[in-house]
Model the fold of this input.
Amino acid sequence: MPASTSRKNDDPQPLLLLGEQRDQPRLQTALERWKISGPVGLVAAGWEEDENDDLWVRDSIRNPVINTMLYELADELFARDPAVLALLRERQDHLRELRDVYQIQLQHFCAIIRGLLIRRETQRTVAEPLDLTFSQLRKVDAQYLTSVAGVIRKYDRELSPKNRPSIVAYQKVVVKRLATCQALLIAGGHVGVLLNRLRLSRLLNQVPLPTIAWSGGAMALGEVIFFYDHFHPHSGQETELSRHGLKCYRGVQVFPRAEQRLDLHQPVEMAMLAGRIVSRSLVMDNESELEWSGKKLIHAVNVREISADGLLKEWRP
Amino acid sequence: MTIPNQQQILVASEAGDLAVAELLDGQSLPLVDDDQVTFVFYGEADSVVLRHWVFGLPSELQLQRAGETKWWTLTLELPLRSRIEYKFAIRQNGHEQWILDPQNSRVAHDPFGGNSVIHMTGYDEPEWSISQQGGPQGTLETWELTSSALESTRQIRVYLPPRYRPNRRHRLLMMHDGDDYLKYSRLATVLDNLTTCWEIPPLVVVLLNPHDRLREYGADQRHAAFVVEELLPEIERRYPVIGEPAGRCLGGASFGGVASLATAWFYPGVFNSLLLQSGSFAFTDIGNHSRGPVFDPVVAFMNQFRDAIGEPAKRIYMSCGVYESLIYENRSLVPLLQGAGIQVKFEEARDGHNWENWRDRLRSGLTWLFPVPRWFYYE
Done:
């Protein structure tokens, strides 16, 4: 697929989601497939102070790499306009309060569902209560998502990122840095930090480019963001919704780093995950690929779907 | 391969030493089969005794000679997932010598030497405690600080983590018996691994080492003054750490646990969190204790502390082995701390009072005390 030269905001750009890249990068193959040989922009803001640790990306592709340094630029913005940082911190405190309550709800609903799923094989009477509880949990998730979105909207109104001179200046620097780029690479890291910097910079709206995103980067571009870790050292940490993503793709919920993060061989845990999600739940590992052309999902490699019974099966669009 | 039991060894011994050797050929010794362990010793002796550090079992357990051979065996039932340290006491001609089990290559080291180790079924050495080839490593710095409180010069070692950034403020962990934690609990490896996989944030870790351990760590006000009034300001001057209680944790094991708790109690509001492993929290409700004179100041402190807990910290992680005599003191402390409004996480392990038990609990303790960047990071 050739690189788009258009900069119209409503032109859907090609999008490729990949699994973890650092150990076995596949970026070069993807760029060649898209016939992109010019400079590419890199967003690694999820790695915070380490965003310039990008040598492995530069080594793995032949294209010149321009690191946007979104995280560092935002730090400079906060120094110039401390009120922005103060508002974002206030927003964070507000979101933390919402999350505390949400987690109490999650603990209880997940405990009930887990108990019912364990009995599903042996007790015929479980199906209806299980459906009911899943439906209630989905409502809790949806309500939380709405509340979080409300808080974010409230602070967006105060921040006014399209009009506030300091933020507009920040956005302009980012646009300028990407002026010669033919594609955008979005790395993982701290998904919340990455998402905040992408939203603040309005990068995807202002500089629409064919995009390759991996792991946490792929999560940030989805409809909603889930945090998950079945191997968390302290049991009781349930998979939780975080907030809306950037909605660059729809209809699937991706779970990168599945082998490291999900107990793939425990159908009860996997069924708990799939039952909460309206979209298709897709697990991604190192060699996974999902490609969109415009709004159409056209290509999937090494992607498995979690079925309602918690089992995994190969998935094709 | 089928694991032979003591009865089969005894039967084989009727045919002599060689028949037992053939039966045991290729077996990993001691023989562990679910919750049964059979100790095996081969050699000249008048008697062979299992010396172990499992509080609750008889302190002297005799191995039985297999017929007329030089083989000696003993079968015990031990709970699954246990980890046990032991030696053999060989008695011959009126002399007794304690030795490692010559047939068991698994040895745990400590400041007093080493012990042989059994891993019962279900116990696995944690992967995160094993050095990863080529993985990122922290660095160690050593410098000296002259202490007025202790009237001596102390060597201070500081671990700086992978991803240490001088322009970023780090959380601070101060560990008593720091060099022993490095050497016997692989603290640096554990920190490297947990930091690298985002289970804990990059920590600056100060490693304290005593000169006169039992005195200094036995709830000694001079030690507390050294830590809080002399060392802490120097650390905060030299390193980019969060200079607030919320960023500080103090920890240690055994008497190091007492030193941590006592220091935090003498100076409330300095440390937000404590890591207390197998703390020697001996106390009396009435009368005298029977743990020997080194415990006198500890018991005096603990009695005082239990009467007026105050708020030495907001969050305390405690762990203790169920095969330690100290398990009762540790268990009894938990509700007192919780009753004082302190958030406590207490974990028990089927292990004893030793450095590998403390190593094995580090992940749980550190990730609870320093939560949890990993949740948000997806590489």
The CA atoms of residues 227 and 241 of chain A lie 6 Å apart.
